[in-house]
Design a protein that fits this description.
The chain contains 7 helices and 22 strands. By secondary structure, the protein is mainly β. It starts with 5 loop residues before the first strand and ends with a helix.
Length: 430
């Protein structure tokens, strides 16, 4: 399998140092420093990322060299766009980090204005596209007005900007998951078959007998007889030789919760993601657990929570991802430690819709792992899966993520409301 080129641009080891002389200087523009300080990290063509910047009070202290505050993942087209001269841009694209003190927002109806301390800029150059690890900047640099308008020391920002090659495999389901499609590896315009997907439904669902009451006829094509539970779904991933190399199956049925007609957070449906047991032929070894439920709102969403199962005897579960996907339009499920840790840091107190327990996410896990883009309910979904090459040592490693992607895709349908579709005017005729 041949991967596609991606690079990871990481910004870390952040720290802000403001000498007392700068605080007392009129020219510096810095009147007071309040914590936390924040910065906005901008790269043309990508959403702005915001993160906190710790204050460094001692001149001997160096911020943690292994910490990562922000990451951007660039493919070849992104690099070409950044390096190409644009009609609407007079200068080259650059990485820009604007540092602020104070919070953005309001208090008691009065707007709170953030104070910008300074800006760091790093121009995009040819070395970005060379596909090799390179440290673009590492150390302290003066920012703000004092460095230019006076001889007094101004605010200083410490950071490390690094490029690392991070190639990915990109897979595409050839058709809707329930139609048992092939899974191909995309290499430009070439599609190379790698796996096949086999969907089965072991048990016939229980049909609501009252459905005939609403329709007036059991054979009416205008009404869909809604199922009272969705269970028995199973997906097997086979390699080119026909051997099953991964699977996903429903272990907790998707059923409407008490008092409503949808799968609620209080009683989510669940999938078990498994791989062959190397020590016991014809047996499966649990690898992960995917829970899914529906969140109601102005725009309904389906929450997919994935936990990695420990292989040890303690049988622990580690939360790796908790993603909300637009039920109508679809979206992206991903496992990305950088993005999850930033989200956890931005909301240290878990929201009612999140467990907030991302204890398994750490530097050792390593940034981007996988992503899966799926369509919304009622649409023809052919999942597109991206998988970091460094997490794949053999074909079986990729297969387990295909099983996870299939479970995410099928969860969109499994979390559809259970209400019946009433033929127009049928209510008034009763």
């Amino acid at each position: 399998m041949d991967p596609q080129a991606f690079i990871r641009l990481s910004i870390g080891s952040l720290g802000l140092r403001i000498p007392a002389a700068a605080l007392n200087s009129v020219n510096s523009g810095i009147h007071a420093v309040s914590t936390p300080c924040t910065c906005e990290i901008r790269l043309r063509g990508f959403p702005v990322q915001t993160t906190s910047v710790p204050l460094v009070t001692s001149p001997e202290v160096i911020p943690d060299s292994h910490s990562t505050a922000s990451s951007f993942y660039l493919e070849a087209s992104d690099l070409n766009a950044l390096l190409a001269p644009g009609c609407f841009y007079s200068t080259r694209a650059c990485l820009e980090i604007a540092v602020f003190t104070g919070r953005k927002g309001s208090h008691c109806g009065v707007g709170i204005k953030r104070q910008q301390i300074g800006t760091f800029k790093l121009e995009v150059g040819p070395e970005w596209g060379e596909g090799r690890p390179v440290i673009l900047f590492n150390g302290w640099i003066g920012i703000g007005k004092s460095k230019q308008e006076s001889k007094r020391p101004g605010a200083e920002l410490h950071l490390r900007v690094k490029l690392d090659p991070d190639p990915r495999y990109i897979f595409q389901f050839g058709d809707v998951t329930k139609l048992s499609p092939q899974i191909v590896l995309l290499q430009g315009s070439i599609k190379q078959p790698i796996f096949s997907c086999k969907f089965t439904q072991e048990r016939a669902p229980q049909v609501d007998p009252l459905s005939t009451y609403w329709s007036g006829s059991a054979e009416s094509s205008d009404l869909e007889m809604e199922r009272r539970e969705r269970k028995g779904w199973k997906v097997k991933i086979h390699d080119l030789s026909g051997s099953a190399v991964a699977a996903a199956f429903i272990t907790t049925p998707f059923v409407p919760s008490t008092g409503c007609d949808w799968v609620a957070r209080s009683n989510p449906g669940a999938w078990l993601i498994v791989r062959p047991d190397v020590y016991r032929p014809e047996s499966w070894q649990p690898w992960g657990k995917l829970e899914a439920w529906r969140e109601r709102g102005i725009r309904d969403s389906v929450c997919c929570r994935f936990r990695l199962l420990s292989e040890g005897q303690e049988g622990g579960e580690f939360l790796m991802s908790e993603i909300f996907i637009n039920a109508e339009k679809g979206g992206e499920f991903f496992i990305d430690t950088d993005r999850q840790m930033r989200a956890a840091a931005a909301s240290p107190i878990p929201s009612p819709q999140s467990s907030g327990d991302f204890a398994a996410l750490g530097p050792a896990v390593g940034g981007f792992v996988m992503s899966c883009r799926v369509q919304g309910e009622g649409k023809s979904s052919k999942p597109l899966v991206q998988l970091a090459m460094r997490h794949v040592t053999c074909v079986e490693d990729a297969a387990i993520f295909m099983a996870l992607a299939a479970a995410v895709d099928l969860s969109i349908e499994a979390c559809r409301p259970f209400h019946r579709k009433i033929k127009r005017g049928s209510r008034n005729s009763l």
